[in-house]
Specification:
With 148 residues, chain A is of the alpha/beta class. Helix content of chain A is 41%, strand content 22%. Chain A has a six-stranded parallel sheet. The radius of gyration of chain A is 14 Å and the shape is globular. Chain B is globular and about 50 Å long. The chains are: A alpha/beta (148), B alpha+beta (229). The interface between A and B is medium-sized, with 15 and 19 residues.
């Protein structure tokens, strides 16, 4: 896979602010497995500070493939984050078949490890072609001690 | 005029009011305050008021050996487009919520300016002589005076510095007319208010004389206008 450029929650949310967080955008975010919760906390904080909106955080393992529409509708003002802790082929296949649900839900962020990202990009061509960007995301160093 | 004892009592009462205001000013957390300040400074960069965005500023650090249990937000240097520099340090302490313990905002102005520095400080404790050193005060230029300053949220202080203090003190180069006026003791020359202003980029708009040199558009009084003419 091509090396993804590196970002932080601060920079990513500034980007969302520039394009408008309610405009459709779909980001695949890669991070270390140990940093998933830190990144989620950073994103929630930056969305609140920079845009004054909440983060709708979904665990991929809890999304039922047959009820995707339920998961992605009604995001409203909030940005949506889907965190993948492990590879879920049925869910990824369903996302690929129903990609329009993700591209009409405002800002959607898919957060996962490098390994899951590579498998997703290889097996979900519709999703791959709709991605706004693929980025490696790091925890915010300036406020690192706040995560404790 | 009251005696020294009365003045000291009044100064202590003023510091007690500062203490009470500080005790009522809770922060969500130092990290959230840091994110808010960083976002504010980045917006100043977007507006061309400051030079660069640095996402590692301010930085959240644990207090040193003498400040255990405290957290501090540190900004070593943030540069304005005018070449003025801003640094600050805010120290918070958790006591059933986060409270500000002390802070210092230091605005360093360009060397071409008459006033070289403005510093707003909240000391950790009240001074033994609050008449001379109020707990929250500011310094301006080379003055040794500690001028009382109201307790307010650090976000408001940053806003005050960025939107009012720095623009007023660091960017006045095109107001040569103002400086010229201060040096002369001659009385104002009354002239017709319908005459169009000459020089200094002055323009008449809606009955007021304004400086046309962007970005200031500073309004001048009719008396100042007459002096310049």
């Amino acid at each position: 896979m091509t090396d993804a450029s590196t970002t932080t929650a601060f920079r990513l949310v500034r980007r969302l602010a520039a394009i408008g967080h309610q405009n459709p955008s779909l980001y695949l975010l890669i991070c270390d497995a140990t940093a998933l919760s830190l990144i989620q906390a950073d994103l929630a904080a930056e969305l609140e500070v920079q845009l004054g909106v909440g983060l709708r955080a979904l665990a991929a393992a809890e999304i039922r493939p047959e009820r995707l529409a339920h998961a992605f509708t009604g995001a409203g003002e909030r940005a949506t984050l889907v965190s993948f802790n492990h590879w879920l082929p049925k869910l990824v296949s369903a996302l690929d078949r129903n990609i329009v649900l993700l591209t009409t839900a405002g800002a959607v962020l898919l957060l996962m490890t490098q390994e899951i990202a590579e498998r997703m990009l290889a097996t979900a061509p519709n999703l791959r072609s709709r991605l706004t960007d693929v980025l490696t995301i790091k925890a915010d160093l300036a406020f690192g001690s706040d995560h404790a | 005029m009251s005696g020294d004892g009365d003045l000291l009592r009044l100064a202590r009462e003023r510091d007690n009011q500062m203490e009470a205001a500080l005790g009522a000013m809770y922060l969500e957390s130092p990290a959230m305050l840091g994110r808010n300040l960083r976002n504010y400074l980045s917006r100043q960069v977007d507006r061309g008021r400051m030079k660069h965005t640095d996402e590692k500023i301010p930085r959240l650090l644990a207090g040193g050996n003498d400040e255990k249990g405290l957290q501090k937000l540190v900004c070593n240097a943030w540069e304005f487009a005018s070449d003025a520099g801003l640094s600050f340090e805010i120290v918070g302490q958790e006591q059933r919520g986060w409270l500000i313990r002390r802070f210092e905002f230091h605005l360093r102005l360009p060397s071409s300016r008459t006033i070289r520095m403005v510093r707003i400080e909240l000391n950790t404790q009240s001074s033994h002589d609050p008449l001379k050193v109020p707990r929250c005060h500011f310094h301006i230029g080379d003055s040794e005076a500690h001028i009382p300053f109201p307790i307010m949220d650090p976000r408001l202080i940053l806003h005050l510095i960025c939107e009012h203090v720095e623009p007023d003190l660091a960017r006045k180069r095109h107001h040569a007319g103002d400086r010229k006026i201060r040096r002369t003791n001659s009385p104002p020359q009354r002239s017709s208010t319908t005459r169009q202003p000459q020089g200094h980029g002055l323009q008449r708009r809606d009955g007021e004389v304004v400086c046309g040199a962007a970005p200031c558009q500073r309004r001048l009084t009719a008396q100042t206008y007459n002096y310049i003419q």
